[in-house]
Design a protein that fits this description.
149 residues, 66% helix, single chain, mainly alpha
Length: 149
């Protein structure tokens, strides 16, 4: 009795394993994809491949354009750095000229300054020797106030 039970359990287990593992029981080994479906899949995949090729070419062109723009920006940056160095040199020269100009203006202002003459000692003459110094109205060539010309 037990032998029959174990034998039937073994046969049932084997049948279940064959049902789930081997496709022969359900006919899956005979499944064939129709050619029209394969052709449609091939055409769809070729369109996708063409679209992806176009996208790659477009992105490659954009990458080249962006690279050229980057190189132009890099060159402009190098030129602007050189220009900045030149401007800094000119600014230093301008600052030097401004300081020299200020120094020269101060020297000129000191030279043009009106200062009182030093007081003369009592022994020194206030007029040059031998030259008569008279006020204008007493001078022989001067017109007297109120006289016609």
């Amino acid at each position: 009795m037990i032998e029959t039970l174990l034998l039937s359990a073994g046969v049932g287990g084997t049948a279940a394993a064959l049902w789930y593992v081997a496709p022969a029981g359900r006919g899956l080994h005979r499944y064939v994809v129709p050619r029209s479906r394969l052709r449609a899949d091939i055409a769809r995949l070729e369109r996708e491949a063409n679209d992806l090729t176009c996208a790659v070419l477009r992105l490659s062109t954009e990458n080249t354009t962006i690279g050229k723009d980057r190189d132009a920006a890099h060159d402009a940056l190098a030129d602007s750095r050189l220009h900045n160095v030149e401007l800094e040199r000119q600014l230093a020269a301008f600052d030097q000229l401004c300081s020299e100009n200020t120094r020269l203006r101060a020297a000129l202002a000191n030279a043009r300054a009106v200062r009182p003459l030093p007081a003369a000692d009592g022994d020194e003459p206030t007029v040059p020797q031998g030259i008569p110094v008279l006020p204008l109205d007493q001078a022989p060539f001067a017109l007297k106030p109120g006289e016609p010309e």
